[in-house]
Amino acid sequence: MDLVEIKPPQWDVEIDLAYATVRNITGKPIYAHARCYLHRDAAEALARAIELARALGYRFKIFDAFRPSEAQWALWNKDPNPEFLADPRRGSPHSRGVAVDLTLIDGQGRELEMGTGFDEFRPIAHHARLDVPLEAQRNRVLLLGLMTAAGWDFYRNEWWHYQLFNPRRYALYSDSALPPGQEMMPRPLEPIPAG
């Protein structure tokens, strides 16, 4: 399998998967298990970004990474907005394990001001907005610089989203691609035996 798990302490990041909580556009957890995976190529690029951020006194907080195709459908069914969500029929870079949604945190674990929260599906979340506070503009540029220097491409509509270049060269994965016992999505309930 080409997906590797990203978790502390092996990875110097904070994991806060929004889709394992009610803090997402559906208002309910999509993931039953808050596990963070990336394709091995994306994991290598994340390792480079971590080193660059560490040199400046920052760390990353990850909101989402690999997103099983089933989860992409759950988001799309709630809000089929191609400005912010990839149509699951074409496949998301997240469902290929080559995209990560993240922000920077300081030495005390506080998120840097970015002008909006994660998954704020409004134009104000686009890169290079001049109508967010100056501090947020600087922080967005800092995040952009760190990630692009580490080999990531960015999505212009979401300051938090980064992906590998040419993501369609990677295979799409569903939850079943994960090892048994390592799945993210809820499992169907087993039938209760009669009597």
From TrEMBL:
Keyword Manganese among record annotations: no
InterPro entries in the record: A_A_dipeptidase, Zn_M74/Hedgehog-like
GO molecular function, one term: metallopeptidase activity
Gene3D superfamilies linked: 3.30.1380.10
Cofactor(s) for this UniProt protein: Zn(2+)
Lineage top rank: taxon: Bacteria
Keyword Chloroplast: no
SUPFAM superfamilies per record: Hedgehog/DD-peptidase
Record text on cofactor binding: Binds 1 zinc ion per subunit.
Annotated catalytic residues: 158
GO BP term (any one): cell wall organization
One Pfam family matching this protein: Peptidase_M15
Catalytic reaction(s) noted: D-alanyl-D-alanine + H2O = 2 D-alanine
Keywords in alphabetical order: Cell wall biogenesis/degradation, Dipeptidase, Hydrolase, Metal-binding, Metalloprotease, Protease, Zinc
Enzyme class, first EC level, given as a word: hydrolase
The protein's Enzyme Commission number: 3.4.13.22
Annotated site (Transition state stabilizer): 67
Sites where the protein binds Zn(2+): 94, 101, 161
NCBIfam families (UniProt xref): PRK10178.1
Role summary: Catalyzes hydrolysis of the D-alanyl-D-alanine dipeptide.
Similarity comment: Belongs to the peptidase M15D family.
Protein name: D-alanyl-D-alanine dipeptidase
